[in-house]
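Run folding on both entries below.
>entry_1
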Amino acid sequence: MRQSLLRFVRTLHITRVLVRYRLDEVLYFLPILKPYQAVLRLSPMSWLGPKPQGGFAERLRQALETLGPTFIKLGQMLSTRRDLLPDYITQELAKLQDAVPPFPSDEACKIIESALGKPIHTVFSEFNSKPAAAASIAQVHFGVLQDGREVAIKVRRPGLRRIIDQDLAILGLLADLAERYSQEGRRLRIRAVVAEYAKTLRGELDLLREAANASQLRRNFAADPDLLYIPEIYWDYCSSSVLVMERIYGIPIGQLDALRAAGINFDQLSRRAADIFFRQVFRDAYFHADMHPGNIFIDPQSGRFIAVDFGIMGSLDDASQHYLAENMIAFFQRDYRRVAEAHVEAGWVPPDTNVQDFETAIRAIAEPVFEKPLNEISVANLLLRLFQTTRAFHMQTQPQLLLLQKTLVNVEGIARDFNPALNMWEVATPLLTEWLSRQRGPRAWWTEMKRHFPEWGLVLPEMPVLLHGILRQAQQGELPLVIRNQDLEGIRKEIRRGMLRLSFGVSGTFIVVGIGIMAALAHKLDYAILDLPLWVWLILLPGFTWVGARWIGSFFRIRD
């Protein structure tokens, strides 16, 4: 009950912000929310107070910043989705800032002491109470452990989880409505996108998970110390609300003048940035998905990259890796038929898609791009234009590729800042070719056999018994055949829900009509029907109708 009340209050606050910035019309693409428009138009909030300035995109950005971390990060994610939103909106959302005022240092100290179970002075010989950085999820302090190791201490904001849980519940409800009542919502798989976003955001709240992400990435690049350095995690001092890691010293990649003064080779940096990205995606299938300039530094001594903030990490399954590599190679070989076929094989577009029409559409967006020199081709923009085109062919949104799109845009921007003439394809080709060679032919078969051999050793002794049982059932005509269709299952559930709503609606109508009759015929309530007064019938009939509706509804109740 308390959670429902808090969620209701939060919903009112969100509504107030939308009305304040004249953004409430974004809700009305759902027919079920149309009546809500009239209610808001009658609210004093809609015609009192100052008028917001700027166009729709600017007002949207301001509203998201006002609503807090859940919506700021949602806007940052949407800023990379040019396949869903017009460019003028994504460009404005890209300005969203995650920097907020720090919370009081005494609260940070209490959180640290509570997490570690010790007074702060027994853990750190030095602790800087002034935050070095503050964001919507956490803030960072510097300190020195008792053994002299310099550390960065990340502390999660107090009370944040409750607000984010409320916001995600509201977003989940809106996503459910969008898929239920909007064909476009179903095509875009809004629920899956929100679920993926919720998983990512909750992962950021758990600093133990962030520590594990950093540890995994550090292990992946242990053999490439000249490319990327990941600070060491000090596990003895980590919890879900506090993370203690090695303090790093580097030059932020946005400070180009400082990097030049340090003698850094910009061409080498640009190639390293691209190399790091493609190694993470195709070698490890695990990548840092928040590589904006605030999280990346350059070691002035070695020129290698240093990464921080590992709350958002991406991963790809084997199928997504395979089809992504196939698409990129086919693109640059101008094999548009293969690009179209790869989309169908991956299930990204419906199986009945006309491959020839799809190929023609892809050629129309790619050929003008390839007329440019290769070093002027933006891989990120090419993929984004592809996603925009596939919208016409009912391509379903692939949540596992959202973070990859965002990261590719960031990495390519970083690489081009250092060297505008960089040929991203020249860097990517050797890694993609090597990766695909490992996925095909005898080498790939042998690798798969070695990986699955322990599993086969466990199940092979059972195979004769299982095969004999199946053949015996088939011979006796007892082999069960189960066919499930997700679309039919959804239709069946909607029919059940409709019957429930109908039964309760009819019973409610009887009750309301009965009450109206009683009010209208108050002077004739003693009139007898079958030896019972009229007022008795007006009470019994709605009651019997309600019981009957409950009884009918029991046959249609969904048991998930």
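>entry_2
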Amino acid sequence: MNPERIFEAFPAPSYRGNQEQALRDIRDAFAAGNDVVLVRAPTGSGKSLLARAVAGCARTVEEAEPSEASGAYYTTPQVSQLDDVAADDMLSDLNVIRGKSNYTCILPEERNTPVNQAPCVRERGYDCSVKHRCPYFSDRAIASNREIAAMTLAYFMQTAGSEVFRTRDVVVVDEAHGLAEWAEMYATIQLGPRTVPFWDELRVPEVDRVERAVRYAENLAQTCTRRKDDLLAQEALSPAEVRERDRLQELIGELEWFVSDFRDPKSPTTWLVDQSEPAESARGRDGDGSEDDDPEGEDETGGPLTIKPMNPEKYLAHTVWDRGNKFALLSATILNKEAFCRQVGLEPSAVALVDVGHTFPVENRPLYDVTQGKMTYEHRGETIPKIARTIVRVMQAHPDEKGLVHAHSYDIQEQLADLLRDFGVGDRVRTHDRDGRDADLEEWKASDEPDVFLSVKMEEALDLKGDLCRFQVICKAPFLNTSDSRVAHRLEEGQWAWYFRSALRTVIQACGRVIRAPDDHGATYLADSSLVDCFERARTDMPDWFAEQVDRMEQPDLPEFEPRAALGGTSSTRGRGRSTGRNANAGSANGTGGDSGSSAGRDGGRTRRRSRRSSGSSPLADVWDTDG
């Protein structure tokens, strides 16, 4: 790696904000001998441009000895981020490669067939006449031979050990704040009817400890191998059989990795096992009688299993750290360097941190306190109607502007949608479901109407610049689900700082959705009182630029509750929103008590500065929630 090349590798014609200083600091950090540099760069810093500049410092093929690694990888966990990179003219030399399922076969009779189900993977010895033009293999060949290959983190991890995508000189990971969580997710093994092709034929024991899960995994891997070999022995496979073969191969790898890692005395990974209740049809099932299905010969029948790793350092070593010589990890929300390094298996003393200052005026990104109470499960029924009334008042304050509501869950989204419709403002409200999520989002973004979009899990990787969105409401503190065994295990060990830091990270990511440039502006309204408590408990991990926002947080005045005024110029015939047929007069529910306000727009109107308060209550009492 040649860090001195970082300025000439910067792809933009000029610098903006703190980019030049950031490049200088990154150069110096690598020049000082650090193998890993964390770049904490807030929204609008141009992280992708910085990433390209770092990748451009990689040793070239001409500079490398035959045994030395050259070139660079750019990877990100967010598919939308990779799409943005692919569409950016300044990043055109980042050669993007995606998984096979993203490409379509070009054979005339297979036009609608994904490449991962095409004849070349269905028929043994198939000689494809157009392989040289196959969109997947063409992109793969280009990416593997060019200086910079770009891919999702999932594809990057899946190609560990590949002869095509070998170790390179530099690896750049964008949006790297969730690297540990992504690794835990990728290494998690789901054993159930949706993931094991022959689940209904198995006798699954009750698994009360990890050791028994290991024994079961060994026997299941053997069964999967026999079934996969039977499929491989066939001359041709149907698309369904191809999917089964590929899933069996994945499952074998997952199970063998789990067994190997658990039995490695040097592995730092802690494994947890969750088991669901068996389906009624499975109770008393005899199975196929094979010894492999129930190695201990016990009669009890268990349900689907989830095998989860914690702190999968060994997994990251294989899938990430062994893939490069130098690493740049970029994110706005790597909040605590030491904690992050421990989670991903890095030695903090060998890692440098570069902080990039925020260039967006703090007055353009205000936080408003409109808290209505706690949104924990036991308080939610009382708090949601108050939040719905507050959303109406926020809509009144922004009658001609588009807004986003972070509902946190589909249950909360549905309750809010029903209440807002009952209040008479449903014509200005849009929702989405799991299947139509992306299409509904794009339709809302493309609309010129000042609609409010009730969203679920859209706190990250969403660019709502300019008039695409001028205000947002965060309805619930995004605490991790305490019914998840990994979360519960960490809290039992007293890792409350990690817990609040995780929630703070998501809030900071959410706040960046509505302001994307120094001359942009967008207001964020906080409706859950647990958000304020989270700010206090995670204060030491808060970036200075976000702490400045929190210190300026205010309780401004909103218009009095008048739903008709919330419609603004919205057409009353569009019929947005969902109705559940409720007849209750929700408009009078809870009166107006508990509504705090916020003046709209960039200036904030008449405001009351909020004084910070401390909480002496138990953290668990504030955040315990079991519904996700």
